[in-house]
Design a protein that fits this description.
With 223 residues, this protein is of the alpha+beta class. The protein is 26% helix and 39% strand.
Length: 223
């Protein structure tokens, strides 16, 4: 008769495998900041006159926006371009003047001002309104909530697969890959290169922003 020590265990090697599961989390958030991009574009045969006209109009826009309540630090020049413009007549390149583009980007925390800002700018000479972009300043709090949802979904998927296969699942994933950036500003659909002055007030709806997080988790399971 074989004697077996009480601490002796007759174990067999355990085979393990890995599985990859994805997780997706989505949360909604109300925007609390907007950027408005607008400006003035003009052309003249004289470069000096083109610049002078552009400078006058842009300064008038800035002065009007400041009177409206937009602080100077909220107004930034985001583009200033001067380039010769040409047309083609009978196959030949013909100079038609110098074009000057001066673009301002406004950062607004008071979203109720957006319509008034656009109307004030266009009534003072702005003929470019490129876009209105909404964002959330504290985006990390929303993104972390979405990330938590994504992790929970991945865990649920892994547990379901393990139960279906009747195998044991290591509760801690051996690898997690995050595949979504946290900051996701959303542009407003009203985006036109050249706009004529519109009847006041211009309606702008901020709506809600969707913050999404995606992950891929690798789990180990064994029999």
């Amino acid at each position: 008769m074989m004697y077996m020590h009480p601490y002796y265990r007759n174990t067999e090697p355990t085979t393990s495998w890995t599985m990859k599961v994805s997780g997706r989390g989505i949360v909604k958030g109300e925007p609390d900041q907007a950027t408005v991009t607008l400006g003035f574009q003009n052309k003249d045969m004289s470069l000096k006159q083109a610049q002078e006209k552009n400078n006058q109009v842009i300064q008038a826009i800035i002065d009007a926006l400041t009177r409206l309540g937009v602080a100077p630090e909220q107004i930034q020049t985001s583009e200033y371009r001067i380039f010769p413009d040409y047309d083609y007549k009978e196959g030949e390149q013909v100079f038609t003047g110098y074009q000057v583009n001066n673009i301002l980007t406004l950062t607004l925390d008071d979203l109720s001002m957006i319509g008034a800002v656009i109307d004030t700018a266009t009534s003072n000479g702005a003929n470019l309104v490129r876009d209105v972009t909404f964002s959330i300043q504290d985006i990390d709090a929303y993104y972390n909530a979405a990330l938590q949802q994504a992790l929970q979904q991945a865990v649920s998927k892994a547990q379901t697969i393990a139960q279906s296969l009747q195998v044991n699942l290591n509760a801690v994933p051996i690898r997690i890959i995050e595949s979504t950036a946290a900051e996701q500003p959303i542009p407003f659909a009203k985006s036109s290169m050249v706009l004529a002055a519109e009847s006041s007030p211009t309606p702008i709806e901020k709506g809600q922003l969707t913050i999404e997080a995606n992950i891929v988790a690798t789990y180990q399971y064994f029999n």
